[in-house]
Amino acid sequence: MGKSISEALIEKSLFLTALLSCFIILVILCFIFIEGFPAIHEYGVVKFLFGNVWAPNDGEFGVFSMIVGSLCVTVFALIISVPLSILCATFMAEVANTKVRNFLKPVIQTLSGIPSVVYGFFGLIILVPFVRLHFGGTGFSILTAAIILSVMILPTIISVSYDSLRAVPQEYREASLGLGATSWQTIRNVTIPAALPGIITAIILGMGRAVGETLAVIMVVGNVAKVPDSIFAPARTLTSNIALEMSYATGIHYNALFATAVILFILIMILLVIAKYIQRKYSIDAAGGTL
C-alpha cells in the first residue's frame, strides 16, 4: 500500500512539473505576443514582414532583411557543420579505438562549454581579418558568422549523432558483415541509415542553437540591416537586432523589438516543424527497411 502511495506521489509530482514547464513557456510566449502586438497592429503585418528598411527614428520597422540574414547565417553554418559532425561522430562510433574515443569525447564536450563571447572574440581577431584579406570587404560577413556558429554547434551535433550511432544494435553490423559487405559499406548502408532519425534530431538541436545565438554573431556579422547580396556581405540577424537596440528602445520601437521576437519564434517553429517532418519520414523509412 505504501509503495502504491509513493508511486502515485511521484507520478503526480512529475505531472505537476511538466505542467509547470508548459505554464512557464506559455507565460513567456503570451508576454512576447502581448508586447509585440501593438507594433504589428500599427505598422501592418505585411509591411513589418516584408519591409526592407529598419529605421526606428523614421518610424520604419521592416524586418525582412533580418529574416534573410538569420536564415543565411543558419543555413551556411549547418552546411559547414553537419558533414563535419557526422563524419566525426561516425569515426568515433565506428572506427576509433577506445583510447582515441576516450580522448575525443571530453575534448568535444569542452567545446560546448566555451562561452560564446570567446568564440566571438576569436572570430573578431582571427577570422574577420582573414576573410578581409582573402575575400575582400570588411571581413564582417555572413561567412564569418557562419564559420563561428558552425564551430559552436559542432559539439551538440557530434554528441547526439554519436549516441545515435552507438545505439544501433550490433546485430545489424554483424549481419551486414556476414553477407560479405565491407566495414565502409556497413557504415554507409546499414549503420548511418539506422541512426538517421537520431542524427536528424542532432541537426535540429544544432539548428536551434544557431538560430538563437546572439553575442558571437553580433561581434562578427557586421550588423547592417539590409538584404545581403553575397555571403561576404555584412548582415543583421533577428537576435542581434533585439540585443543591440533593446537597451534604449521606447514606445513603438520597443514594441517592434518584441514583434521581432515574435517573428523569430515563428521562424524557429517553422524550421522545427520542417525538421520534424523530415525526421518522421526517415524514421518510417528506416523502420520499413529493417522489417
Strand order of the largest sheet: 1-2
Low-confidence stretches: none
Oligomer: single chain
The helicity comes to over 70%
What structural category arises from helix and sheet content? mainly alpha
Number of helices: 11
Query: What integer value in Å does the Rg equal?
Result: 23 Å
Q: What integer is the average pLDDT?
A: 87
| Residue fraction in strands | under 5%
Order of helices and strands: HHEEHHHHHHHHH
First-last Cα distance: 43 Å
What can you tell me about this protein's structure?
This protein is mainly alpha-helical. Helices cover 80% and strands 1% of the residues. The protein contains 11 helices and 2 strands. Strand 1 and strand 2 form a beta hairpin. Helix 4 (98-113) packs across helix 6, helix 5 (116-135) crosses helix 6 (142-166) and helix 7 packs antiparallel against helix 8. The protein is globular.
Write the layout of secondary structure elements.
Elements: H1 2-43, H2 45-50, E1 54-55, E2 60-61, H3 64-95, H4 98-113, H5 116-135, H6 142-166, H7 170-178, H8 183-212, H9 215-220, H10 238-245, H11 251-290
Write a concise keyword list for the protein shown above:
globular; 291 residues; 2 strands
Summary of the model, kept short:
This protein is mostly helical and 291 residues long.
